[in-house]
Amino acid sequence: MITITNETFGNIPTLHVVKEEARKEKNLPTIFFLHGFTSAKEHNLHVAYLLAEKGFRVLLPDALHHGERENQLDKQERDLAFWEIVLTSIRELEVLKITLEEKGLVTKENIGVMGTSMGAITLYGALTQYNWIQSAVSFMGTAYYEIFASGLLSNVEQQGLTIEQQVKEKMFEQIKPFDLSGQLNKLEGRPLFIWHGTEDKVVPYSLSQKLYSELAAEYDETPWKLHFMTEETGHKVSRRAVLKSIEWLNQHLCKVSS
């Protein structure tokens, strides 16, 4: 039986999805699933359920200003807080991992991270910081922080909001250390699955295509650790992509029994 419990890890509201009989096992391969902008942890339970059926432990945290942590920010305020949310989620990944270690529920040898849209953007930043992430799955995200941030700023300004140059510069300074595109060596050949719809109007498909092209040389000796999957669809993850990514994680993160 698959159980779903709402728990708090390091003050972070998190759904914990796992087979009941394996709940206290230490060596289960563990997946952190990071949701998208304006979404919440509950919105990805279908993916977590399928992973748990395969024998994974899955943790789905609410990002800052989302789900149980949502506050009274209006749309414009939350749009402007995008990078604050991403950087907070990167820091909180470490908190979640340490908390699970203290509970004896995880070892650093079997941790994967999946993310959708904003969650995938967070994932790419986390890969610059944490070598304990053993495998990663990006659904319609981007590793090109500075390029994407420039596009977001343009969209906000087109809505009539003026942003001071000093504010812009501070933002770029804050995100630069987490921009994986300028430090691809930090991947260190770790397994990476990239999925992106070619018709995506929210996060440009071209950036995932560009990343894959740049990484192909990095993974020349281990091409099976890098997978790029596309479909003719927009900003919505397909069932086919979900199933393929789970199959891929089952091969690359750790052999688990269903």
From TrEMBL:
Molecular function GO labels: carboxylic ester hydrolase activity; serine-type peptidase activity
Q: Which InterPro entries match?
A: AB_hydrolase_fold, FrsA_esterase, Peptidase_S9_cat
Which superkingdom heads the taxonomic lineage of this protein's source?
Bacteria
Q: Which GO terms describe its biological process?
A: proteolysis
Task: Provide this UniProt record's keywords sorted from A to Z.
Answer: Hydrolase
- Domain Peptidase S9 prolyl oligopeptidase catalytic, chain residue ranges per copy: 99-252
What the entry lists under PANTHER family is as follows:
DIENELACTONE HYDROLASE DOMAIN-CONTAINING PROTEIN-RELATED (PTHR22946), POLYKETIDE TRANSFERASE AF380 (PTHR22946:SF9)
| Name the record gives this protein | Putative hydrolase of the alpha/beta superfamily
User: Whose protein is this, by species?
Assistant: Halalkalibacter akibai (strain ATCC 43226 / DSM 21942 / CIP 109018 / JCM 9157 / 1139)
